[in-house]
Amino acid sequence: RAYAYTVAAMYGEPGALRKDATVSVDVTTEAVEGETHAIHFNRGSPATQEYARRFQNRPPSEVGQAAYDWLSRGLVESIKGFIQRAVDGKFALKGAFYEFQWADVLDELRAAKGRGVDVDIVFDDIDNATGPHTKNEAAIKAARIKSLTTPRSNGTLMHNKFIVLLERDQPRAVLFGSTNLTENGLFGHANCAHIVENADIAGKYFAFYEKLTGDPETGRGSDYKTWTIEQTPAPASRYVEGMAPVFSPRANLEALDWYAELAGAAANALFMTFAFGMNTNFRDVYAKDDDVLRFGLMEKEWNGANKEAQIAAIRKLQARTNVVIAIGNYISLNKFDQWVKELNRVTAEVNVRWVHLKFMLVDPLSDHPVVVTGSANFSDASTRANDENMLVIKDDTRVADIYLGEYMRLYSHYAYREAVQIFLEKNPNASPDDMAKFGFLIEDGDWTTTYFDPKDRSARMARRLYFAGK
Question: Within 10 Å of residue 421's Cβ, how many Cβ atoms?
């Protein structure tokens, strides 16, 4: 669709404003479905005023289908639609999922089997204290699809989320991304499903599926980690239509080092999501002394031990003049002017509330963007220990546009909520209503000054220059 946005500078007193200088910007949006790529994001923000107004802040399990549809925003529908493409016995669906529990999707797979489709899904059945094996087994039993599944019991985490569509035994397309098949994964924290219509890429994922069906060992003496490197070298030695997959676990950290190298090579801007803290490789990139604009969108500032030190490191990065980092949050008080209380989760038990996406955008508004997306957190564990998959996509401006548009939607949402939280932490006796009294509302022309100040610690000048195309 084509849109024209007009921004007008208004002068005068309230009630008698006059329009002065204006500027218009024409925008043409990308369709989510494309010849090679289809990309679907869920709402990714149950903590919204719109959800509170529409559904009186009740969890979707109480509201019903309307709430689920609104939170899904086409994500669940895209997964079910992909499965429905397997219309008869000429097709097969082969995949792997970490959390494999949402009944609607499991029922869709059973329906595909009823059409004669060859269906098999490898699921995480690793016996550890925090894994999803018990819930996976219960969901599979309830859906009556045990014969359509293969348990993965070795390894640390079978963290993949992908399905390969085959026709007459030939891979045709693959659906992958960050989305676990759970209520929180589909309707709560931010996730995506990315479909690639390419036989070679789908074939790589199918080979990964076949490897997983053998339940490979990950310890010393196993060739599994060597196999993933041979199948998907990093840095990539070959691209297919600008795409190169990267599978884990691996015997070294070369893939993570490559991602950091790509991030550090950004000429103008870098945008990354971090679900579980920020790895030191990327902290070093964000701390570089240059003029590259760097955005971060985080679930939380830390992961594991040394919580306070990790938070302090993120705060230090946030103070840089070219770095902008937002942390997931919600408006926590009942009263915020005309605002209403927000939902902070869709289910009682959650491990991730806000940001579960795993993607990186390097120079996304250039003619040669790089997008890295998939199931793996940018971490040591996701590289050396977990079953994971990522796809590196270069020079595809359409894909970069879609990811950047979604990134900025989520960033704008959570940056404000983080600002409220920081304000309240610094002013424990204040309420959000008091923010205007602390200099957030500037009633004269001085509000523009920071956008031309190279020392501004909110990166306003860096943002102005980048998004203005300078």
Answer: 16
430 C-beta neighbours (distance < 10 Å), count: 13
SS3 for 136-175 is: HHHHHHHHCCHHHEEEECCCCCECCEEEEEEECCEEEEEE
Return the biggest CA–CA distance within the chain.
78
**Cα-based distances in Å from 352 to 172, 303, 347, 444:** 33, 12, 11, 41
CB 196 within 8 A of CB 121: no
Backbone Cα Rg of the chain: 23
> What is this structure's pTM?
0.95
Buried-state track 176-208, b at ≥16 Cβ within 10 A, e below 16: bbbbbbbbbbbbbbbbbbbbbbbbebbbbbbbb
**pLDDT tens across 199-257, in order?**
999 999 999 999 999 999 998 889 999 999 999 999 999 999 999 999 999 999 999 99
Which of 98, 91, 85 shows the shortest CA–CA distance to 38? 85
What letter represents residue 43's amino acid?
Answer: R
